[in-house]
Specification:
Strand 6, helix 7 and strand 7 form a beta-alpha-beta unit. The protein has two domains: about 10-130 and about 290-305, Aspartate/ornithine carbamoyltransferase (Rossmann fold); about 130-290, Aspartate/ornithine carbamoyltransferase (Rossmann fold). Helix 1 crosses helix 5 (about 130-145) and helix 2 (about 50-65) packs across helix 12. The strands form two sheets. A five-stranded parallel sheet has the order 7-6-5-8-9. Strands 2-1-3-4 form a four-stranded parallel sheet, sandwiched between helices. The chain has helices at about 15-30, 50-65, 85-95, 105-115, 130-145, 160-170, 185-200, 210-215, 235-240, 250, 275, 285-305; strands at about 40-45, 65-70, 95-100, 120, 150-155, 175-180, 205, 220, 260. The chain is globular. The protein is α/β, with parallel strands linked by helices. The structure holds phosphoric acid mono(formamide)ester and norvaline. Phosphoric acid mono(formamide)ester binds next to helix 2.
């Protein structure tokens, strides 16, 4: 049966660890994998802009011996030009996998339901699992372990935050979100994850105070205050998030060897200051690079043995 990658919540800890370990193997020895997806094609359907996700999937496919096709907002027009059902069925006759970046998470679920090839979430309004996988790979690479580490997410409880929350619980990373009232991560996801994490001895918490949250953190993570699709709220959000900027001063409260992370694109001077993003703790471009290695591992896992039906 084909396998999709829609949400971290649908993956077991072992599956996640399997992807992280294959990512390491691919990063260390890319030549060994240069032909594993020979003759395979990947459709990249993007309803929103992208730099990292698009380029790393396209280059990754090329490096694995396969081919990628970019289908932007003007091409497929999901649900407008034709139904998602018909797009899924048609593309499954041509390609071996589909990456979808969309405003509506439900579109991903529908695509996965009707496609006979693997569907990968390239970011939705709800989650960004490929980002969370690359981020935990980066943390593992930097520290050599994940257990008992604490990640503090400062800012909007958005798609990236939801996926980081889920993956932290599955990998044993304590996760603290510092966010203003009204910008918390998805309520149900948070509630269920806190309970599941507590059973494994992992602490997930919510705070309103970035400074006390930052104290003793191994990782300080932030993302834009206004995600794609929320641009019209940018002015209000700038006011609401004013005290939630990641600065060099805030980073100095964390552990001495802490990592400063951001999925990028960054709005410098808003959620993160130049001294934090360009400072010695920042690993933002390692994160960006690791999107490539980790997504190659995802493609190998999902597409290598894929049989279209
Ligand atoms: N981090 C990330 O997904 O970047 P893009 O939006 O540029 O793909
Ligand atoms: N939260 C951001 C992430 C971009 C990679 C957005 O959805 O715009």
């Amino acid at each position: 049966m084909k396998k999709d990658l829609i949400s971290i919540g649908l993956m077991s800890s072992d599956e996640i660890k399997g992807i992280l370990s294959l990512s390491k193997e691919i990063k260390n020895n890319p030549g060994k994998f240069s032909n594993v997806l020979k003759g395979k094609s990947l459709a990249l359907i993007f309803e929103k802009p992208s730099n990292r996700t698009y380029v790393s999937f396209a280059v990754g496919m090329y490096q694995l011996g396969g081919n990628a096709l970019y289908l932007g907002p003007e091409q497929i027009k999901l649900g407008v030009r034709e139904t998602i059902h018909d797009v899924a069925k048609t593309l499954s006759r041509y390609v071996d996998g589909i990456v979808l970046r969309t405003f509506g998470h439900e579109k991903l679920l529908e695509m996965a339901r009707y496609a006979s090839v693997p569907v990968i979430n390239g970011l939705s309004d709800y989650s960004h699992p490929c980002q969370a996988l690359a981020d935990t790979f980066t943390i593992l690479e930097k520290f050599g372990d994940l257990k008992n580490r604490t990640m503090v997410y400062i800012g909007d409880g958005n798609n990236v935050c939801n996926s980081l929350l889920l993956i932290s619980a599955k990998l044993g990373i304590n996760f603290n979100v510092a966010t203003p009232r009204g910008y918390e991560p998805d309520y149900l996801l948070f509630k269920n994850t806190v309970a599941a994490a507590a059973r494994r001895g992992v602490k997930i918490s919510l705070s309103r105070d970035p400074e006390s949250a930052a104290k003793g953190a191994d990782v300080i993570y932030t993302d834009v205050w206004a995600s794609m699709g929320h641009e019209d709220e940018a002015a209000k959000r700038k006011r609401d998030f004013k005290k939630f900027q990641v600065t060099g001063k805030l980073v100095s409260l964390a552990k001495k060897n802490c990592l400063v992370m951001h999925c990028l694109p960054a709005h410098r001077g808003e959620e993160i200051s130049d001294d934090a993003i360009d400072g010695k703790h920042s690993v933002v471009f390692d994160q960006a690079e690791n999107r490539l290695h980790v997504q190659k591992a995802i493609l190998v896992k999902l597409l290598k043995h894929g049989v279209k039906s």
